[in-house]
Amino acid sequence: MSESSTAEANRPGKSSKEQQPGLFARIALFVRQVVAELRKVVTPTRSELVNYTIVVLVFVLLVMAFVFVLDFGIGKLVMWVFGTPSA
Amino acid sequence: MLRAFAQAFRTPDLRRKLLFTMGIIVIFRIGSFLPTPGVNYANVQTCVSASADNDVLGLINLFSGGALLQLSVFALGIMPYITASIIVQLLRVVIPHFEALHKEGQAGTAKLTQYTRYLTIFLAILQATTIITTARTGVLFGGCGEAGGTIPVISDDSAVTILLAILTMTAGTGLVMWLAELITERGVGNGMSLLIFISIAASFPAALWTVANAQGGFMTFLLVVLLALLLIAVVVFVEQSQRRIPVQYAKRMVGRRVYGGTSTYIPIKINMAGVIPVIFASSILMLPTLLAQFGDQNAGWVQWILRHFATPASPFYLITFALLILFFAFFYTSITFNPDEVADNMKRYGGFVPGIRAGRPTAEYLRYVINRVTSAGSIYLVLVALIPTLAFVLLGISNIPFGGTSLLIIVGVGLETVKQIDSQLQQRHYEGILK
């Protein structure tokens, strides 16, 4: 967002060129700031990560199994009611 | 951990919510199979298997959980509702009246929800008409099932039947919308995202089955599964990481008591917008394909759209998708988190970020941090959304079993829902699913 606004402000031939660093310098600064912020990010610990991943996996698989069984049953039922292909 | 899943069912409060949600899911799936009146079910089945590898409508079909090509009552699924809510949220920026309504609080939000519902019905009529018309002319199934042909999808080709079919699909969409709201209100998780999650989960086993059977054999299958596992871990990792902005609360004496004086933090997730940008981006990318269904199939622009937007592997599609995700990540973050408001609240309760003055400087600092963190977060979203597609292209798997979009939605919604269940478990002093 701020990248695009800075890019607009820095059209060639502007008088404010002396005061502000060039476009690439500012992009570099922005990237450095992004990295600096990312360094302050608190990441989950290894055990947390493993635990969460497994829980999500189990949950997703459970839901998938539930929907799969459900679909199978409903599909059969609808097939029975409304007829099968090439009947 | 697995015991906690069982524990969730033993807590009366939570059990009711879970069973309620499951009941809604059952209704949702039944409606996804039930054929619309006027549609010849047997002929639809024949046509679906005949045009199985037609991936023009693949993604749309995926988001409706296979209901679209069944021409079922819920053929449109939850997509019109999602599209409508995107449009209403986008309009908040354009129309001052909408922004005023949003700021008004609960009454205004209710009004906005009302607008969203009207728009949903409007979109549903539009899409239902498209689908029924294309099914009637045989375009939907790639030349199969024309009215008057040997296996007509719509047996009775009269105006009344077609109107009835369109009406039924529109009503079905309205019902789905209500079901989603019921889940949000009385069940677990966010109804809208949960229903799309269910739709994707429904077509996932079949997609995996195709990979296992058709192409490359066992090694490719293993590779795909490994890739999926890796991506799940990455998504969990990023969703759980946060930038914590420390906040110190001043001590206050009220009477003889001391309040405050605690230090907490504002958690800022790397990807604050969650899976919403991806859902928004992909539903917007569906519009051109849908539009193309209206036009003459041999017209230049229709051909152009079909070439560039219908296949997820085309570079043009990928670039547009990436740009849309970037845009929506920032857009949605700015909608959901208002730095001015947070700074104002902090000031009111005597809180401050160490080293930064309360009020406007704090808001600016928050904005600074959010912009930088979201920059990283949006790039992460784009990468996760695109990596599977790119990987499948590189592996030489032609019809893509699942995109990063569906994987992101599945993991994101799964994580969100599990966390919500967990927090409700912990309210009752159980140890929770997520220790």
TrEMBL record, chain A:
<dbReference type="GO" id="GO:0006605">
    <property type="term" value="P:protein targeting"/>
</dbReference>
<comment type="subunit">
    <text>Component of the Sec protein translocase complex. Heterotrimer consisting of SecY, SecE and SecG subunits. The heterotrimers can form oligomers, although 1 heterotrimer is thought to be able to translocate proteins. Interacts with the ribosome. Interacts with SecDF, and other proteins may be involved. Interacts with SecA.</text>
</comment>
<dbReference type="InterPro" id="IPR005807">
    <property type="entry name" value="SecE_bac"/>
</dbReference>
<keyword id="KW-1003">Cell membrane</keyword>
<comment type="similarity">
    <text>Belongs to the SecE/SEC61-gamma family.</text>
</comment>
<keyword id="KW-0811">Translocation</keyword>
<protein>
    <recommendedName>
        <fullName>Protein translocase subunit SecE</fullName>
    </recommendedName>
</protein>
<keyword id="KW-0813">Transport</keyword>
<keyword id="KW-1133">Transmembrane helix</keyword>
<feature type="region of interest" description="Disordered">
    <location>
        <begin position="1"/>
        <end position="20"/>
    </location>
</feature>
<keyword id="KW-0472">Membrane</keyword>
<keyword id="KW-0812">Transmembrane</keyword>
<dbReference type="GO" id="GO:0065002">
    <property type="term" value="P:intracellular protein transmembrane transport"/>
</dbReference>
<dbReference type="InterPro" id="IPR001901">
    <property type="entry name" value="Translocase_SecE/Sec61-g"/>
</dbReference>
<dbReference type="InterPro" id="IPR038379">
    <property type="entry name" value="SecE_sf"/>
</dbReference>
<comment type="function">
    <text>Essential subunit of the Sec protein translocation channel SecYEG. Clamps together the 2 halves of SecY. May contact the channel plug during translocation.</text>
</comment>
<feature type="transmembrane region" description="Helical">
    <location>
        <begin position="49"/>
        <end position="70"/>
    </location>
</feature>
<keyword id="KW-0653">Protein transport</keyword>
<dbReference type="GO" id="GO:0008320">
    <property type="term" value="F:protein transmembrane transporter activity"/>
</dbReference>
<dbReference type="GO" id="GO:0009306">
    <property type="term" value="P:protein secretion"/>
</dbReference>
<dbReference type="Pfam" id="PF00584">
    <property type="entry name" value="SecE"/>
</dbReference>
<dbReference type="GO" id="GO:0005886">
    <property type="term" value="C:plasma membrane"/>
</dbReference>
TrEMBL record, chain B:
<keyword id="KW-0811">Translocation</keyword>
<feature type="transmembrane region" description="Helical">
    <location>
        <begin position="373"/>
        <end position="394"/>
    </location>
</feature>
<feature type="transmembrane region" description="Helical">
    <location>
        <begin position="192"/>
        <end position="212"/>
    </location>
</feature>
<protein>
    <recommendedName>
        <fullName>Protein translocase subunit SecY</fullName>
    </recommendedName>
</protein>
<dbReference type="Pfam" id="PF00344">
    <property type="entry name" value="SecY"/>
</dbReference>
<dbReference type="GO" id="GO:0065002">
    <property type="term" value="P:intracellular protein transmembrane transport"/>
</dbReference>
<feature type="transmembrane region" description="Helical">
    <location>
        <begin position="18"/>
        <end position="36"/>
    </location>
</feature>
<keyword id="KW-0813">Transport</keyword>
<comment type="function">
    <text>The central subunit of the protein translocation channel SecYEG. Consists of two halves formed by TMs 1-5 and 6-10. These two domains form a lateral gate at the front which open onto the bilayer between TMs 2 and 7, and are clamped together by SecE at the back. The channel is closed by both a pore ring composed of hydrophobic SecY resides and a short helix (helix 2A) on the extracellular side of the membrane which forms a plug. The plug probably moves laterally to allow the channel to open. The ring and the pore may move independently.</text>
</comment>
<keyword id="KW-1003">Cell membrane</keyword>
<keyword id="KW-0472">Membrane</keyword>
<dbReference type="InterPro" id="IPR023201">
    <property type="entry name" value="SecY_dom_sf"/>
</dbReference>
<comment type="similarity">
    <text>Belongs to the SecY/SEC61-alpha family.</text>
</comment>
<feature type="transmembrane region" description="Helical">
    <location>
        <begin position="118"/>
        <end position="139"/>
    </location>
</feature>
<feature type="transmembrane region" description="Helical">
    <location>
        <begin position="315"/>
        <end position="337"/>
    </location>
</feature>
<feature type="transmembrane region" description="Helical">
    <location>
        <begin position="218"/>
        <end position="238"/>
    </location>
</feature>
<keyword id="KW-0653">Protein transport</keyword>
<dbReference type="GO" id="GO:0005886">
    <property type="term" value="C:plasma membrane"/>
</dbReference>
<comment type="subunit">
    <text>Component of the Sec protein translocase complex. Heterotrimer consisting of SecY, SecE and SecG subunits. The heterotrimers can form oligomers, although 1 heterotrimer is thought to be able to translocate proteins. Interacts with the ribosome. Interacts with SecDF, and other proteins may be involved. Interacts with SecA.</text>
</comment>
<dbReference type="GO" id="GO:0043952">
    <property type="term" value="P:protein transport by the Sec complex"/>
</dbReference>
<feature type="transmembrane region" description="Helical">
    <location>
        <begin position="56"/>
        <end position="82"/>
    </location>
</feature>
<dbReference type="InterPro" id="IPR026593">
    <property type="entry name" value="SecY"/>
</dbReference>
